[in-house]
Task: inverse folding
C-alpha cells in the first residue's frame, strides 16, 4: 500500500486554461512523490470540470453546485486530503 506523501488542493472557478496548466505543472514537477491532487470546482461554466475528467482522471474532483468562495472550497479539499503534508494552491500564484 502506498502512502500519500503530499496532498495538493486546487480551488477553481472558471479558469479552465490556468487549471490545465497548473495541474500539468504539478504532475510534471511531482517526480517520484506520491501525490494526491484534489480539485474543488466552484460551479464553473467554462468546461473546467469536463477538462479535469478527460485530461486528469487521477484527480479527485469535487463539483460544487454553487460558488462557495475560496476559503470554504479550500477547506473542503483539506478535509478529505489524506497526506500529512497538505498544500493549497492559490490561483494567483498559479498564474505566475
Result:
Amino acid at each position: 500500500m502506498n502512502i500519500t506523501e503530499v496532498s495538493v488542493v486546487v480551488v477553481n472557478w472558471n479558469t479552465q486554461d490556468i487549471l490545465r496548466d497548473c495541474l500539468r505543472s504539478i504532475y510534471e514537477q511531482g517526480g517520484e512523490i506520491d501525490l494526491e491532487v484534489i480539485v474543488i470546482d466552484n460551479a464553473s461554466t467554462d468546461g473546467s470540470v469536463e477538462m479535469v475528467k478527460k485530461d486528469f482522471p487521477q484527480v479527485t474532483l469535487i463539483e460544487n453546485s454553487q460558488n462557495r468562495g475560496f476559503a470554504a472550497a479550500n477547506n473542503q479539499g483539506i478535509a478529505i486530503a489524506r497526506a500529512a503534508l497538505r498544500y493549497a494552491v492559490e490561483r494567483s500564484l498559479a498564474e505566475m
